[in-house]
Design brief:
The complex is a heterodimer of chains A (about 650) and B (about 300).
Chain A: E1 2-4, H1 17-24, E2 30-34, H2 38-46, H3 51-76, E3 79-81, E4 89-95, H4 110-123, E5 131-136, E6 140-147, H5 150-158, H6 169-180, E7 186-192, E8 210-214, E9 224-230, E10 235-248, E11 255-268, E12 278-286, E13 289-298, E14 304-311, E15 317-324, E16 334-338, E17 345-351, H7 356-364, E18 371-376, E19 389-393, E20 405-409, E21 420-422, E22 428-430, E23 434-435, E24 453-455, E25 457-459, E26 468-473, E27 478-485, E28 488-493, H8 508-521, E29 532-534, E30 538-540, E31 545-548, E32 554-558, E33 565-567, E34 572-576, E35 581-585, H9 589-592, H10 602-610, E36 615-616, H11 618-637
Parallel strand pairs in A: 4-5, 4-7, 7-9, 17-18, 17-19, 19-20, 20-28, 29-35
Antiparallel strand pairs in A: 1-3, 3-36, 5-6, 8-9, 10-11, 11-14, 12-13, 12-15, 15-16, 21-25, 22-24, 23-26, 26-27, 27-28, 30-33, 31-32, 31-34, 34-35
Chain B: H1 13-33, E1 46-54, H2 66-72, E2 76-83, E3 87-93, H3 103-122, E4 126-132, E5 136-144, H4 149-158, H5 167-173, E6 182-188, H6 195-205, E7 210-218, H7 220-223, E8 229-235, E9 241-246, H8 248-271, E10 275-280, H9 285-295
Parallel strand pairs in B: 3-4, 3-6, 6-7, 7-10
Antiparallel strand pairs in B: 1-2, 4-5, 8-9
Helix pairs in contact in B: 3-4, 5-6, 6-8
The chains are: A alpha+beta (about 650), B alpha/beta (about 300).
Chain lengths: ~650, ~300
């Protein structure tokens, strides 16, 4: 829709009549008699334009003059171009998640581009259409309720800032619908760098946006329509850490393993051939001292995963910093984490008899005060003391314990999630095992292909049904399974260590038991080990919280909200008044891939092209006038002045 | 600028007096250079005794002076001086370009024709007046003697200047009388329909059995036009029109082309043994005429 904000000034177009009249009634050239045309003809052949060319030039000159007048007048009348819309209200929904901090070559972030695009669109709106602003990251926030105050709207858009966290568009869109439904028909202008997931119709159908008719439960269809305006970079390279977990190395003192996932994205416009791995460098720093470098070749189609050994004591600060040439987003390049405090794992071992091999395996874990093992007969269960892991060997209680991690060795019968089928006779020798998941933490350091076991029961292990995943499968069926059932970690070994020939005397058995104890003692979400969390999460903390960077420099002191809840809204380390320590990192795959999807798709190109021709075009028209003047000067005055 | 006033009479008594004075200057100059030259009053070739020479083998025995042989008993042959009367052809371009838009060209051309004819008549040469536009036309039958001067001048004054010039055609069709030695004086601006026409004309003139003088009469504004801006130029001969925009540099380019044209004509004449003079109307008449006659051997009395 094309409108003029000062249409009265269009009357100045009458000025265009002057050059037209001059063109039509121009004076005839002076007539001069000469003795001969010989030399004029020769000169015209070389230096003078042909008659048709002169006529064309005069016509071109007239057209350029008219173009200058038209451009100047339409600029004065403030031409605005806006998408066809009859909306009564507009909600500007702006993605302010971490990926919107990606900057182009000119240094403009996607959020700034979104604010500019929104400003241009608003310029094309009628003055009586209220506009609201909602920004969202992991949760939405109404920054400006529906308002006719355009200056306040402009201030709100200018004050938008990126928050280093992921994005959740669904609750934001839901909120935007509710606000837009106040005054229908309403419109939602969704500015984001993410590829629209609900688009209908061909890209570019509606101005610079992908239009989506929306029907919600509270609104009749087409009462609220959504325009997705994509502001993604058409050319960008980015790598970032999208996954991080820290765990203690089994049977090691002050040794940890950091699981790191690195993802990358490369958008090269239409140049698909340029896609390829991105070379990056990962610097590992512990308490400010560089502990190592890793050169990575990050495949854009598949995240790169690696284990980084960390040797550090409790409370040390581990920092991972990723660098790559041309990286457009810095927020996802850095991860800081505290080495968690070592709390010994309390293990209660309940069995009818003392199995020497199990005793040997458990005692080997006690070094370094990492594991405390208590042993007792069936009478020791339930325990009066809190325990982290209970090991039932050859015995099961009558009632399944649901509040503690459990390791069941050689179960005599089925109970709770442990469902077994006894093998006939005195068991089955298993000399050939099939390992279903070699990367499972339970099997770390365990050589499963050189074992010979006495299997007593066949486990019912079905990850989809029972929640237990089989890890070792013998000829008769699964004999080692692990899984998480209703938040409870569980390991089941369907073999008898004492009767197994090669397993107990090898290092694999203590490793297996140790892995099982550590794995079971971990929280269900490994990311939360040591309170190393993602930004955007809510944590309950005490009193004042101090944010610091990796070097210990204080960034901010903040007060948790009522109830002690604090939103982790920045990157760094935090400490509350009660001494609770933690960290916050972005770790968001959507942010690292810059909104996901193909950043150079057609809708993006349309958005880039369309932004020049939307909103108030005064500046563009003035440039057009200047350029036309320059062209006219070059064509008609450069050679005439001589 | 000494450009002649187009409104003043072309052949007033002052002009004739200047011509006589000019002739006297010429004659005294020639007499200083050469004494004893005689002329006959008869037309055509005559024999005037000059000297004796001892007979040599191969000489015509009819030339032997038998009276002298009787006295000296030796063979001598008589030598004679041949005195020849010239036929002066004045070929005057009377196309429109010679009178328009610059009438001074017409005045200069007529005065030149008059001066040349007067010189011819006063030296007892036979003078023919021919005009040239589309074709060459004999205006007067050959005349001789000073008594025809006034008749010649009045005829010249009545000559109409109009039409287009066919330089090459005119020169090709014109033939001076071949059994007599002649002098041809071409008075023209040499503007034909095309630049090559002037070269062709010079080529034809080069074959004439005569001493040829080409006097190119031009107006200064024809060499460097005083024009600028958007113009519609009209050819006075053909009435053809051209619309153009002239700037300062165009004037310089135009002058370069005209001067190149004049130089080409001059070189073409020089190659063919013809005398070429570019005569602009702003130049003083008498000095230019003296300069011309100093190079015009026969007509200058040489």
């Amino acid at each position: 829709m094309v409108r003029f904000l000062d249409p009265l000034l269009l009357s100045w177009l009458a000025v265009a009549a002057v050059p037209v009249v001059l063109y039509l009634f121009r004076h005839r050239p002076r007539q001069v008699s000469v003795s001969t045309l010989l030399f004029f003809d020769a000169m015209m052949r070389h230096d003078q334009d042909a008659a048709w060319l002169r006529r064309l030039k005069r016509l071109l000159s007239l057209l350029l003059t008219l173009l200058i007048i038209a451009g100047a007048v339409t600029a004065m009348a403030r031409l605005v171009v806006a998408p066809d819309s009859d909306v009564q209200s507009v909600v500007i929904l702006v993605d302010r998640s971490a990926s919107m901090a990606a900057a182009d070559e000119a240094g403009q972030t996607r959020l700034q581009a979104a604010a500019d695009a929104a400003g241009r669109r608003v310029a094309g709106l009628a003055a009586n259409v209220p506009v609201a602003v909602i920004a969202y990251d992991v949760r939405p926030e109404i920054l400006l309720p529906p308002s006719l105050d355009r200056r306040e709207l402009d201030r709100t858009l200018r004050a938008l800032a990126v928050r280093p966290m992921g994005a959740d568009v669904e609750p934001a869109m839901h909120l935007a619908h509710q606000v837009a439904a106040i005054d229908t028909p309403g419109g939602i202008w969704h500015f984001t760098d993410a590829a629209p997931e609900l688009e209908t119709g061909e890209p570019g159908e509606a101005d610079e946006a992908v239009r989506e008719p929306v029907a919600t439960a509270s609104n009749p269809p087409a009462e609220v329509q959504v325009d997705h305006v994509r502001v993604a970079l058409t050319e960008a390279v980015n790598v970032g850490v999208t996954g991080f977990a820290l765990r203690r190395a089994p049977m090691e003192v002050d040794r940890y393993e950091a699981f790191v996932e690195v993802a990358g994205v490369r958008a090269d416009g239409d140049d698909d051939a340029a896609a390829g791995p991105i070379e990056a460098e990962l610097r590992i720093t512990i308490d400010g001292a560089v502990a190592g470098y890793r050169q990575l070749s990050v495949d854009v189609s598949e995240p790169t995963r690696l284990l980084v050994p960390v040797r550090a004591g409790e409370g040390a600060v581990l920092e991972l910093a990723l660098t790559a040439e041309g990286d457009v987003l810095a927020l996802d390049d850095r991860v800081v984490a505290r080495i968690p405090a070592v709390e010994p794992v309390r293990v209660l071992w309940v069995s009818d008899e003392v199995d020497a091999f199990m005793e040997l395996a458990l005692s080997s874990l006690g070094e370094g005060d990492q594991v405390s093992v208590f042993h007792g007969g069936p009478g020791a269960w339930p325990s009066d003391e809190p325990v982290d892991v209970v090991v039932f060997q050859g015995w099961l209680p009558e009632r399944w314990p649901e509040d503690v991690a459990v390791i069941v060795v050689d179960p005599p019968a089925s109970l709770g999630p442990v469902q077994v089928a006894a093998l006939d006779g005195s068991g089955l020798w298993v000399e050939s095992l099939r390992t279903t998941d070699t990367r499972h933490p339970l099997l770390y350091g365990v050589a499963g292909d050189r074992l010979a076991l006495m299997q007593n029961v066949v486990l019912s292990a079905d990850a989809a049904g029972t929640g237990l995943a089989p890890l070792w499968v013998g000829p008769a069926g699964p004999l080692l399974a692990a899984g998480q059932v209703r938040g409870q970690r569980l390991v089941v070994m369907g073999f008898e260590p004492g009767r197994s020939r090669s397993l107990p005397l090898t290092a694999s058995f203590p490793m297996l038991v140790g892995n099982a104890i550590y794995w079971c003692s971990q929280e269900a979400d490994p990311d939360h080990v040591g309170h190393n969390r993602r930004t955007g999460e809510l944590v309950q903390l005490a009193e004042q919280v101090t944010w610091t960077d990796a070097t210990g420099q204080t960034l901010a002191d903040v007060q948790p909200a009522e109830g002690g809840w604090l939103e982790l809204d920045r990157l760094g380390l935090w400490r509350d008044a009660a001494g609770m320590l933690g960290s916050a990192s972005l770790l968001d795959g959507r942010a690292t891939t810059l909104g996901g999807g193909d950043a150079a798709d057609e809708s993006t190109s349309n958005a880039a092209a369309g932004r020049w021709f939307s909103g108030e075009l005064t500046t563009l028209l003035l440039w057009l006038v200047v350029m036309t003047l320059l062209v006219e000067s070059f064509l008609f005055h450069l050679h005439a002045v001589r | 600028m000494n450009e002649p006033d187009p409104n003043e009479p072309i052949f007033d008594p002052a002009f004739l007096n200047r011509l006589r004075s000019l002739f006297l200057q010429l004659r005294s100059r020639r007499q200083l250079q050469r004494k004893g030259s005689q002329q006959t009053v008869a037309l055509g070739q005559t024999r005037q005794f000059k000297d004796h020479r001892q007979y040599a083998h191969g000489d015509d025995y009819r030339e032997i002076d038998w009276q002298l042989y009787a006295r000296l008993d030796r063979f001598y042959i008589r030598q004679f001086e041949e005195i020849q009367a010239f036929h002066v052809h004045i070929l005057l371009d009377v196309s429109a370009s010679m009178a328009q838009p610059f009438r001074a060209k017409r005045v200069t051309a007529l005065r030149l024709a008059a001066a040349m004819a007067y010189l011819g008549l006063i030296q007892q040469h036979q003078v023919s007046l021919l005009t040239m536009s589309r074709r060459v036309k004999q205006e007067l039958p050959p005349i001789k003697g000073q008594g025809h001067v006034h008749h010649l001048l009045s005829h010249l004054e009545q000559l109409p200047f109009a039409g287009v010039t066919d330089l090459a055609g005119g020169m090709r069709s014109f033939r001076p009388v071949s059994n007599k030695r002649g002098i041809v004086v071409v008075i023209s601006d040499l503007f034909g329909g095309r630049t090559e026409a002037a070269m062709e004309a010079m080529s034809h003139a080069g074959h004439w059995p005569a001493e040829t003088h080409v006097i190119q009469v031009l107006h200064p504004h024809e060499i460097r036009p005083d024009l600028a801006g958007e113009l519609e130029v009209v050819d006075t001969e053909t009435q053809a029109k051209r619309r153009l925009w002239l700037g300062r540099r165009d004037g310089e380019r135009y002058e370069q082309r005209v001067r190149q044209f004049i130089d080409d004509i001059g070189q073409s004449c020089a190659r063919r043994g013809m005398n070429h003079v570019a005569w602009t109307t702003d130049e003083p008449f008498e000095p230019m005429l003296l300069k011309l006659l100093s190079r015009a051997g026969a007509l200058g009395g040489g």
